[in-house]
Amino acid sequence: MSNHLYPHFGILLVDDEEPFLRSMSIALERSGGFTHIYRCQDSRKAMDIIASEPIGLVLLDLTMPHITGEQLLQQIVADYPDVGVIILSGLNQLETAMNCIRLGAYDYYVKTTDDDRLIEGIRRAVRMQEMRTENQALRQRFLNDTLEQPEAFADIITQDKSMRSVFQYLESIAPSNQPVLISGESGVGKEQIAHAIHKLSRRSGPVVCVNVAGLDDAVFADTLFGHRRGAFTGADKARAGMIEQAAEGTLFLDEIGDLSPSSQVKLLRLLQEGEYYPLGSDRPKRIRARVVVATHHNLEQKQQSGEFRKDLYYRLRIHQVEIPPLRKRKADLGILLEYFLSEAAQEMGKSKPTIPKELPVLLENYDFPGNIRELRALAYDAMSQHRSHILSMSVFRRILDIETPPPDPNENLCPVHFNDQVSLPTLQEMGDLLIDEAMRRAQGNQSLASRLIGISQPALSKRLKKKGL
Ligand SMILES: Nc1ncnc2c1ncn2[C@@H]1O[C@H](COP(=O)(O)OP(=O)(O)OP(=O)(O)O)[C@@H](O)[C@H]1O
Predict the structure, then answer these.
(1) pLDDT digits 0-9 by tens, 95-144
(2) Which of 163, 192, 374 to mutate to test the pocket of ligand 1 (most atoms within 8 A of CB)?
(3) Which helix (H) or strand (E) holds 351?
(4) Cys-Cys crosslink for 442: which of 201, 330, 336, 449, Cβ 3.0 to 4.6 Å?
């Protein structure tokens, strides 16, 4: 049995028939994966349980001695409007059902409803309750601008405001069991975010990472689900899959946008049913890990073009975070550079160098297609070549020279727009404007400004002198 209570709030079953209470809790646990269940056979005690336990959803019988279900429903709605109520009644009467919904019940089921439909309805209600608490938590964090567990983000170096919002959002969805989709360009730190999500969830198990790009369907199934002995030729031993290894923890599936269509079906079924079959086994196992996925692709676009299943996309994006690229987190450049230089210096047994003044300016004008991974590699490269007091700029200068692609003559990309109504500036005036802009972007650094506009530094210096600067 799982030691992680799900959902994070309790589900209270109120019914005067003990056998029904028992069979219902077994169905909730086995088919629904719900483990946070309270039972109440005496309707007079139901309100006390709601007062003393963290109840979020009540499954309520109608015909009970002492206090009827309808009376209890009214009390719950009046005293605990945030607690959801589903009626589970032996009465198949439209009028009663309508009345209960009017009084504030979330849904109404007849006890003879088949288990699958009932469990699906309860899942929907749990999801609604989760969203309600997530919204409340998120609003609270935004209003107070607080983080409750900053230690979960200790490895993520940032002072960017949008990253702080990402952290606040992640805290608010931490108790949920639903999948999380992390998107963002390569190297922005998606895997680090997955680890932070795991820490926030306070799950006792490990984080198990699987890169699913390029796995064919059979390998994907075997990797995730494992197999029984003799499941296929060569399977001489049973092997637990990654889902099993991540029990009570987090299963992190990286590069989910590259998953093959047949594996997408398998993942969808796993998320929908919460169950899977190890290869060669006809007994389903219940997943006891939270699933976190990441991609550098735009899944919305992939879904529209038919490359990614729409139903899987909607399942995955219940909780979604987009990690901004480094070029949009300029405030992070300086602290990340300092951090990586110190880290590299320590690893290489060197003393940390002084950073030349022009370096931050140079970096601010670079796009970092490889994001933080690229900055880290540059810092390590520079440290490996570092000898004296001030850090050499040579490694960093290379990126501007090499990485800025030459303009494509076939592409009609004009970075400046001219107004048809106004006469054109002269070549001389245009040159002056360009120099002013380059000097502004380079914060007065002539060597950098000259690189930005593709002339030598002495040539720039000459033109500035001519301009009287
Ligand atoms: N904010 C950060 N602070 C410190 N290190 C970071 C930060 N963000 C990323 N890194 C480092 O940058 C490297 C790339 O990060 P990570 O692997 O998490 O990126 P990713 O988005 O998952 O990349 P990919 O899409 O290629 O899998 C790692 O070495 C990671 O430790």
Answers:
(1) 888 889 999 999 999 987 788 889 999 999 999 999 888 888 888 888 78
(2) 192
(3) none
(4) 449
- Using a 6 Å cutoff on CB, does residue 221 contact ligand 1? no
Contacts of 183 (CB under 8 A, 6+ apart): 190, 294, 295, 296, 297, 298, 299, 320, 321, 322, 323
| Inter-residue contact 62 to 68 (CB < 8 Å) | yes
In 3D space, the residue among 288, 284, 278 whose CA is nearest the CA of residue 247 turns out to be 288
What is the C-alpha separation between 255 and 211, in angstroms, rounded?
Answer: 6
Residues of the chain with CATH 3.40.50.300: 147-324
- pTM here is 0.78
Q: Whose CA is nearest to atom 9 of ligand 1?
A: 189
342 lines ligand 1 (CB under 6 A): no
Whole-number Å distance, alpha carbon 428 to ligand 1 midpoint, is 45
Tokens 């999500």 belong to residue: 197
401-435, pLDDT tens digit by residue? Answer: 655 555 555 555 566 677 777 788 888 888 888 88
What is the widest separation between alpha-carbon atoms in the chain? 98
Cα–Cα distance for residue pair 78/273, rounded to 1 Å: 35
**ipTM of predicted complex:** 0.97
CATH number of 147-324: 3.40.50.300
Which has the closest alpha carbon to 96: 148, 61, 121?
Answer: 61
The type of residue at 183 is S
- Chain centroid to CA 77: 34
From the centroid of its chain, how far is CA 72?
Answer: 39
Q: Which CATH class is domain 328-405+422-466?
A: mainly alpha
- Output the CA 260–ligand 1 centroid distance in Å: 25
Helix locations, 37-114, DSSP H = 46-52, 69-79, 94-103
Residues in the chain: 469
Closest approach atom of ligand 1 to CA 211: 27
Q: Is 126 in contact with 99 (CB distance < 8 Å)?
A: no
Tell whether ligand 1 has an atom less than 6 A from the beta carbon of residue 113.
no
CA 210 to ligand 1 centroid distance, Å: 16
Considering the four listed CATH numbers 3.40.50.2300, 1.10.287.110, 3.30.379.10, 1.10.10.10, the one that applies to the domain covering 10-131 is: 3.40.50.2300
pLDDT digits (tens, 9 = 90+) for 449-464: 787 777 888 888 888 8
Distance from Cα 344 to the centre of ligand 1, integer Å:
16
Q: Tokens standing for 269? A: 């079924």
The whole-angstrom separation of Cα 87 and Cα 103 is: 11
Q: Which residue minimizes the CA distance to atom 24 of ligand 1?
A: 186
